[in-house]
Amino acid sequence: xxxxxxxxxxTYIAFVHExxxxxxxxxxxxxxxxxxxxxxGDRRGEASTLSGMGAAYxxxxxxxxxxxxxxxxxxxxxxxxxxxxxxxxxxxKGVLDSHSGENQKAxxxxxxxxxxxxxxxxxxxxxxxxxxxxxxxxxxxxxxRPWTIMRGPCR
Length: 155
Fold this sequence. Notes:
Elements: H1 3-19, H2 23-40, H3 43-59, H4 63-79, H5 83-99, H6 103-119, H7 123-129, H8 146-151
Helix pairs in contact: 1-2, 1-3, 2-3, 3-4, 3-5, 4-5, 5-6, 6-7
């Protein structure tokens, strides 16, 4: 019985449902995958699934559940010394903090994520967190026209 493979497939199905905007269906698949990841001892996969669950809960407006998932993922990534994973979980928490109006906490989380991405020379991830990248749009910038946010510093 390939529990790890089944969990991976369930997680991929969840990703597709998320991309289709079907957050609740995605969560259903994540919830099926999570115990399989745990029983298979796949800690990195468990953290990835928890991060996906955090994003889905955040999209559904269930902020506390989202924070709980991100916190669990962050603890696992730190235990594994997985710095890109840690940065991803911190980014999720930072974005959620920003959307909740906790801007100082958001800046702290995102600053930690940026430092981790720079430490591992993750230029793509670093770019997502840098000003003008268009990837992270804090609430106070959402009133601007989309094309001014997307342009970035190089015009």
